[in-house]
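Per your request, structure below.
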C-alpha cells in the first residue's frame, strides 16, 4: 500500500470540510411534508416558471419574423432585436480558427507540455472530485443549526443550486470574454435558450436523483449516456456511427446493469424510491443528450466555447431566477443559508468548482484535444466512485466491481478507437496531398 498516511490525511481533510464521515448513518428516504415536495410536482412547477419567459419570448420572435422586422425595423432597440432574433449574416464574418481543436503554439518543449498537461489534469480532478463529493453532501445529509434545541434539516430545492452554479459560471465567462479577444459569430441569441433549458433540467435531475439513489450509481448511469447521445445524434444531427461505437455502448450498458443489479438490494428502503431515481436519471440523460447535440449545432456559427458558456448561462440565470422568484423559493433558500452557514459555504464552493471546472474543460480540449480530455474525465469518474465509497460508506459487491471495470474498459476502448480513426484520417489526408503534388 502506497503512502497510507497521505491518503488518511486527504480523507481527514475532506471529512472536516464536509462535516461527514463513512461512520455516519446512511441517509433516510427524503422526507416529503406535502404533495408539493414530490419531485414530479416540483418538476412541472419549475417548467411553468420557465414558461413565463419562454412562451412570451417565442411569441415575440414569431411576431418580428412575420413583420419582416429585419428590413423595416427602426429605433434604439433595433440592433438588440436584430441580434436576438435574426443574428448576423455569417457570410460577412471572417471565420476564426475553431477553439475546440488542439493547438501547439510556438512548438513548446516536452517539459512545458508535460507541465501543462499536469496542470490541466490536476485542475479537472480537483474541481470535479470536490464538486461530486459536495453534491452528495448537500443533497443527502442534514444540516444542524447553531440555534439551541433545533433539529437537523435537509436542503430541498435543487433548482437553487442550479441557479448558484449558473450565476457564477456566467460571471466567470463574462469576465473571460471581456478580457480576451473572442471571434465574431452570427448565431441568433435566442437559440442559446434551447440548450439552456435542457441544461437546467438535466442539472436539476442530477441533483434531485441523489435523493433516491447513491452517488456511485449516478456516476455509472451518467457514463452510460453515450447510448442516448448516439440516438439523439442520429435524430437531431443525422450522424452515423462506427461498429466499435455500438460495441462499446453495449459494453457500458452491460457494466452498468451488473453494478445496479448487484447493489440494488438494501441500498434504499423501498422500490418506489428506486423507481423514482431511475426515472429522474433517465430524464437527466435525455436532457443532457439534447444539450450536447444542440450545442454541437450552434458551434457551426464559429463561436468559441467560452461564448457558448456565457450565452447558455445567461439564459439559465434568467430562467431559474424567475422560477425561484415566482415560487418564493429564493427567499426560502436564503433563509436556509442564514440558518446553516455550513450550507452557504458548501453551495458557494460547489459553484466555484463548477465554474472553474468548465474553464479547465475548454482549456484542456484547446491544448490537448478531446481524446486526452476524455481520458482525464474517465479517470475522474473512477476516482469519484472510490472517494464516495470511502467517505459515505457505499457498499460495492464483487459483481458490482466487475461491472465498474467493464464500464471503464469500454470507455478507454472508445478513446483508443477514436484516436486510431483520427490518425488514419490524417495519414489518408497527407497521402492525398502528396499525390496531388
Amino acid at each position: 500500500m502506497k503512502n497510507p498516511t497521505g491518503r488518511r490525511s486527504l480523507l481527514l481533510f475532506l471529512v472536516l470540510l464536509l462535516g461527514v464521515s463513512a461512520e455516519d448513518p446512511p441517509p433516510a428516504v427524503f422526507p416529503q411534508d406535502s404533495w408539493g415536495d414530490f419531485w414530479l410536482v416540483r418538476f412541472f412547477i419549475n417548467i411553468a416558471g420557465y414558461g413565463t419567459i419562454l412562451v412570451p419570448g417565442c411569441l415575440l420572435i414569431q411576431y418580428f419574423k412575420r413583420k419582416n422586422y429585419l428590413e423595416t425595423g427602426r429605433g434604439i432597440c433595433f440592433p438588440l432585436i436584430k441580434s436576438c432574433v435574426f443574428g448576423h449574416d455569417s457570410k460577412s464574418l471572417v471565420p476564426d480558427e475553431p477553439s475546440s481543436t488542439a493547438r501547439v503554439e510556438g512548438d513548446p518543449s516536452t517539459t512545458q507540455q508535460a507541465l501543462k498537461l499536469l496542470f490541466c489534469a490536476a485542475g479537472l480532478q480537483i474541481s470535479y472530485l470536490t464538486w461530486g463529493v459536495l453534491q452528495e453532501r448537500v443533497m443527502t445529509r442534514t444540516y444542524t443549526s447553531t440555534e439551541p434545541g433545533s433539529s437537523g434539516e435537509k436542503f430541498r430545492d435543487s433548482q437553487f443550486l442550479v441557479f448558484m452554479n449558473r450565476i457564477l459560471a456566467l460571471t466567470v465567462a463574462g469576465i473571460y470574454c471581456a478580457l480576451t479577444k473572442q471571434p465574431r459569430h452570427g448565431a441568433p441569441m435566442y437559440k442559446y435558450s434551447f440548450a439552456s433549458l435542457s441544461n437546467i433540467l438535466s442539472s436539476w435531475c442530477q441533483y434531485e436523483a441523489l435523493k433516491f439513489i447513491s452517488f456511485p450509481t449516478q456516476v455509472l448511469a451518467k457514463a452510460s449516456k453515450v447510448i442516448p447521445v448516439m440516438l439523439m445524434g442520429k435524430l437531431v444531427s443525422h450522424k452515423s456511427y462506427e461498429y466499435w461505437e455500438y460495441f462499446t455502448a453495449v459494453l457500458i450498458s452491460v457494466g452498468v446493469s451488473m453494478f445496479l443489479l448487484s447493489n440494488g438490494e438494501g441500498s434504499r428502503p423501498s422500490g418506489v424510491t428506486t423507481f423514482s431515481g431511475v426515472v429522474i436519471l433517465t430524464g437527466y440523460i435525455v436532457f443532457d443528450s439534447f444539450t450536447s447535440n444542440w450545442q454541437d449545432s450552434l458551434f457551426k456559427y464559429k463561436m468559441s466555447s467560452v461564448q457558448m458558456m456565457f450565452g447558455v448561462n445567461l439564459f439559465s440565470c434568467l430562467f431559474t431566477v424567475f422560477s425561484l422568484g415566482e415560487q418564493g423559493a429564493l427567499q426560502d433558500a436564503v433563509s436556509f443559508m442564514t440558518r446553516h452557514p455550513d450550507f452557504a459555504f458548501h453551495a458557494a464552493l460547489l459553484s466555484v468548482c463548477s465554474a472553474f471546472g468548465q474553464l479547465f474543460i475548454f482549456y484542456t480540449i484547446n491544448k490537448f484535444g478531446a481524446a486526452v480530455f476524455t481520458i482525464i474525465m474517465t479517470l475522474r469518474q473512477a476516482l469519484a466512485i472510490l472517494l464516495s465509497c470511502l467517505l459515505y460508506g457505499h457498499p460495492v459487491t464483487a459483481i458490482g466491481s466487475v461491472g465498474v471495470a467493464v464500464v471503464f474498459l469500454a470507455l478507454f476502448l472508445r478513446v483508443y478507437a477514436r484516436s486510431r480513426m483520427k490518425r488514419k484520417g490524417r495519414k489518408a489526408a497527407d497521402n492525398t496531398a502528396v499525390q496531388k503534388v
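The chain has two domains: 53-86, 118-436.

Regards,
D.
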